[in-house]
């Protein structure tokens, strides 16, 4: 714990300009890690190879694919297993009869679901911008890209490593793992098999596996030494633990319990900096030996705290750089962002 505390102090001194970047230890200078949330999803439709490649080209340390499964058990990258908002599936008459309503983790959803399609069928679809009104420029890329498999993302990362000469991390999220396990499509074996085949097997490898559920992470901990992150939110609780809230999990005892199976937590930005100022969560998590990777930093005013919004910006964007620096000053070890290029520019003095 002493080492962790010294590292936090050192990073704060670095941010204040009191330690020259050239003399900072490598571990300190490389923090916080920059995680491209669904790729560079502020500039390309999310979860496409184009989005991941742009994020890598902009200097992201990790790319984050959300993983769901197809009917034939293939891991593919989508934010949700319901795909009407991120593909052109509604424009395919052949799939009209696949539209249905399901209850996923207690929430009723209507649309088309990946588990009702084989990979070959999904290959006939094309990706579209999920937030077209907020990100109209991304609509020009609609229908250009397919839904990528996790293996294709692994191949892209390997190819970009060969091109750039640097390691590029992977930060997959298992989406609705309890639901998928109940329908006979568990994430674990397919995920670990693919990662193992591409050489990712230990805590030294640049991989974090994340989940909002608990049982999934505990099962993974029993099967792998790859690093695990327990995602948490300001409200609600894990879908697989009714009666348990994320607030319960973020007490001193709760964080100690998380540390028994995970390497860190992934809280929302609002849990790190509340309207009245920084919270004590980062310190409590570090005291428990846990890293803190905060989600999700975006440029648009609608996602920013009031003090960082700009009413006169024609693109509806705020003071993103100041928001990034405020989050970093709170002592986090990593941050998720839809805009890795702009976040990297904001972080440059501190890296």
UniProtKB/TrEMBL annotation:
It is an enzyme of class 3 (hydrolase). Residues 32-347 form the GP-PDE domain. InterPro entries: GP_PDE_dom, PLC-like_Pdiesterase_TIM-brl. Its EC number is 3.1.4.46. Keywords: Glycerol metabolism, Hydrolase, Signal. It catalyses: a sn-glycero-3-phosphodiester + H2O = an alcohol + sn-glycerol 3-phosphate + H(+). Coiled coil: none annotated. It comes from the Bacteria. It holds the Pfam family GDPD. Belongs to the glycerophosphoryl diester phosphodiesterase family. This is glycerophosphodiester phosphodiesterase. It comes from Sphingobium cyanobacteriorum.
């Amino acid at each position: 714990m002493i080492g962790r505390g010294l590292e936090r102090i050192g990073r704060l001194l670095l941010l204040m300009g009191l330690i020259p970047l050239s003399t900072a230890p490598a571990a300190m200078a490389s923090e916080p890690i920059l995680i491209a949330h669904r790729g560079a999803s502020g500039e390309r439709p999310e979860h496409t190879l184009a989005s991941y490649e742009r994020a890598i080209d902009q200097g992201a340390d990790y790319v984050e694919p959300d993983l769901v499964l197809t009917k034939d058990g293939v891991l593919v990258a989508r934010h949700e297993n319901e795909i009407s908002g991120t593909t052109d599936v509604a424009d395919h008459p052949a799939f009209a009869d696949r539209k249905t309503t399901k209850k996923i983790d207690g929430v009723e959803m209507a649309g088309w679901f990946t588990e009702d399609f084989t990979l070959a069928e999904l290959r006939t679809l094309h990706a579209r911008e999920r937030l077209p009104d907020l990100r109209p420029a991304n609509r020009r890329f609609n229908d250009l890209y397919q839904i990528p498999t996790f293996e294709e993302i692994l191949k892209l990362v390997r190819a970009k490593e060969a091109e750039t000469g640097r390691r590029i991390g992977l930060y997959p999220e298992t989406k609705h793992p309890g639901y998928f396990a109940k329908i006979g499509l568990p994430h674990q074996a397919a995920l670990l098999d693919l990662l193992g085949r591409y050489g990712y097997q230990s805590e030294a490898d640049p991989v974090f596996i994340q989940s909002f559920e608990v049982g999934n992470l505990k099962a993974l901990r029993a099967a792998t030494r790859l690093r695990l992150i327990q995602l948490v939110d300001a409200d609600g609780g894990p879908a697989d633990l009714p009666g348990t809230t994320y607030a319960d999990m973020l007490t001193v005892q709760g964080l100690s319990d998380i540390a028994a199976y995970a390497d860190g937590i992934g809280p929302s930005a609002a849990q790190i900096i509340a309207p009245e100022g920084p919270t004590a969560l980062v310190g409590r998590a570090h005291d428990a030996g846990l890293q803190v990777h905060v989600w999700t930093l975006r440029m648009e005013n609608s996602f920013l705290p009031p003090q960082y919004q700009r009413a006169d910006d024609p693109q509806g964007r705020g003071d993103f750089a100041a928001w990034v620096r405020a989050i970093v000053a709170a002592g986090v070890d990593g941050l998720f962002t839809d805009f890795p290029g702009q976040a990297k520019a904001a972080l440059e003095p501190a890296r």
